[in-house]
Design goal:
Elements (H helix, E strand, L loop, with lengths): L1 E4 L5 H12 L3 H10 L5 E7 L2 E16 L6 E9 L8 H15 L4 E5 L11 E2 L5 E3 L8 E5 L9 E5 L9
Parallel strand pairs: 4-5, 7-9
Antiparallel strand pairs: 1-2, 2-3, 3-4, 3-9, 5-8, 6-8
Helix pairs in contact: 1-2
The protein binds coenzyme A (COA).
Length: 169
């Protein structure tokens, strides 16, 4: 299995992976909307020429005490086809994706997700670092990872996702 950058011809397969993993079209539609409107990062896990997993990052903004040019990315969605879940594919995608985000100059990544899953990659509740989420969610599900030690030191604010997330139904 390899993890690589999504290619234009992967778009349909990526849709199918998201629909299979989430059992609905919302996340697949969100990816399609974001891809068309903003600079994003998208990686796929490929095995025997089949796409079995996908991870996606899009920029977030921070309302508060934070420089405008600080690049923070939101991880969403992450999807592995049901028959290949719990075999390490998601972890590979997350680790690979975070490395690429750091290479691109992103200082931090936020995620709204399973609080039992993301801490293994270093994510901590964002509130501990002084950051909240624009959505009313429990503190433990909104997490943050600094890609450079202390990158967010002294900053705080409310994280806002792209408007395309609001259309996610
Ligand atoms: C969540 C998901 C991406 C994880 O990918 P994966 O390849 O199955 O995960 P990995 O094999 O890398 O890691 C397995 C670990 O994740 C945990 N895990 C998997 N799915 C989980 C879930 N829904 N909630 C909490 N933990 C989960 C497992 O317990 C396992 O932990 P262990 O190693 O301590 O036993 C995948 O299960 C998936 O696509 N789920 C449906 C879509 C989804 O919920 N996406 C994430 C939105 S935040």
């Amino acid at each position: 299995m390899e993890v690589r950058v999504e290619k234009p011809e992967d778009v349909d397969a990526v849709r199918k992976v998201n629909i299979a993993a989430f059992g609905r079209e919302s996340e697949a539609n969100l990816v399609d909307r974001l891809r068309g409107s903003v600079s994003t990062l998208s990686f796929v896990a490929v095995e025997s020429e089949q796409i079995i997993g996908h991870i996606f990052f899009s920029p977030v903004t921070i309302a508060g005490n934070c420089p405008d040019d600080l690049l923070v990315l939101g991880l969403a969605p992450l999807a592995v086809v049901p028959e290949r879940q719990r075999q390490g594919v998601g972890s590979l995608l997350v680790r690979h994706g975070l490395n690429e985000c750091a290479k691109l100059g992103s200082k931090a990544v936020v995620v709204l997700g399973h609080p039992e899953y993301y801490p293994r990659f270093g994510f901590v509740p964002a509130k501990k670092k002084g950051f909240g989420c624009e959505y009313a969610v429990p503190d433990e599900v909104f997490m943050l990872l600094e890609l450079e030690n202390g990158a967010l030191e002294g900053y705080s604010g409310t994280v806002k996702y792209r408007p395309e997330f609001k259309e996610c139904e």
